[in-house]
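Protocol step 4 of 5: obtain the predicted structure for the target chain.
Materials: sequence only (see below). No template structures provided, no constraints applied. The aim of this step is simply to have a reference model before the mutagenesis design in step 5. Sequence pasted as it appears in the construct record:
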Amino acid sequence: MAELLNRKILFGGKCIRGFTTGRTNHPICEEADVFHNRIRTIILDNDFISENCTKGHDWAIIEVEQPFVFTDKVRPICLPLKNEKLQNILMIFGWGRKNSFSDGSPLIHETPMQLDVNCQATVSDTMPTKVDDYICMKSLNPKYIDTPRICYGDSGSGMQQINDDGIATVVGITSYGLKGCPPNELARFTRVDYYLDEICQITGICYTIQNSTIF
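Step 4 output (structure tokens):
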């Protein structure tokens, strides 16, 4: 079990940013400490492609060649329970642009967004919303052009919530927003708890559906 936990990653079906050996990847880091690994296996959901990439199933499991080394600063994140209750404000971590006019950054950034349980899309948003595995999010201030929201380069990033005990859980995976990253449009995320059975079957990591624990 420990070997599986050290090698598996949940991810959206997207490309990922390369690494820079001489630069840090987080604003609080004082020096570069980048772990370089190679991908051994990628498992995608076939329905993502067969449904034209717009009707859910946007998730993947990646197995890397070398186990991750966990420290006091690098820890695995928890899987959600089935039908996990979502908080109103969730945090997305990624390397995407801050808006459509800026460049991406080697520094990971944290983007808070607000849950929209009804997936209320604007008139200009014609992409699907009634998809079983979607979580819809909106920016905290849709009328403000510089309000934080996901943008190009954030696809595949994890969305997390933290409980009262300080335990972080990955509840969503960034799927897509609209072209131009408008602040008043919905962003779609894949619900992780929708695929707990598949994750269990593929990886053997089943603790959230078997009422057990990894700690």
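Step 4 remarks: The chain has a mean pLDDT of 83. The helical segments are 2-5, 46-50, 196-203.
Proceed to step 5.
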